[in-house]
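Figure S7 source data.
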Amino acid sequence: MSKSVPVITIDGPSGSGKGTIARAVARGLGFHLLDSGALYRLLALHVLQRQRAVQDYSDTELEQLAGSMPAEFRANPQGDIDILLDNQLVNDQLRSEQVGEMASQLAAMPAVRSGLLQRQRDFRQPPGLIADGRDMGTVVFPDAVLKIYLDASPEARAHRRRKQLIEKGENVSIAILLQDLRRRDQRDRDRKHAPLMPAPDAVEIDSTELDIDVVVTMVMQLARQRLPTPAR
Ligand code: C5P
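C-alpha cells for the predicted cytidine-5'-monophosphate complex:
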C-alpha cells in the first residue's frame, strides 16, 4: 500500500499498555489497527498445533509458514477484532502463557521475522494505521509520521498483567510474573534481529505513574499535530 497512508507506531515491552492505547487511538482517529504481537502468537499457536518441534523446521519452512498461515483478523459488531486461525476463533488461546513463550522464542528467529514482514505492511490501508509491537518504528514502518516508545517499570507491568489474569479467573503470583516478564524482556532486547529499542526519532513515554487515559490523550494530541490535515 502506498507510503502516503499515514502510520503511527507504538512500541514497547509487554504490559506497558501499548495494546490498550493503540486500540483507543485507532478508534479515536478511525484508523486500522495492527497488533503485531498477535501475528507472532498466531504463528506460535500454529506451530504448537502441528505438534512438530521448532528445531525440526528449516528456516525456509518457518519463513513460508509465517507468510502463509491461514490467519484472519475480522472486526466484530462489538467493535473488537476477532482473530481466526484455520477459521477457528482463537482470541483466548493466543493469550495463554504457553503461546506467549513460544511466540517470544520464534520472534528471535530472522526467518520468522522476514516471513511476517509483508503481512504486517499489508495492514497499511487508508485512512491510516496504528501499529503496535516491538519493531514497528525501527523496522516495519520506519517512515511512520509518529513513533511512540512506551515503557513502564517491570513491577507496574507485572501488576497490570496480574490484574488481567485475575479478571480471567487465573491467579499467578507477582514473583512468577516478574520473572517471566524479565526473561522475555531480555530476549526481546538482546536479540540480534529487530531488538526492542526506541527508534531514534521516537517520543518516549513512561507510563509507570500515568493512567492509560492520560497517555491516550497525549498520543492523540501528538497525532493531531503530526498527521496531514485530511487524516486527522
Ligand atoms: O506483544 P505480545 O506479547 O503479544 O507479543 C508476543 C511476542 O512476540 C513478544 O514476546 C515478542 O517477543 C514478539 N514480538 C516481536 N515483535 C513485534 C511484536 C511481538 O518480536 N513487533
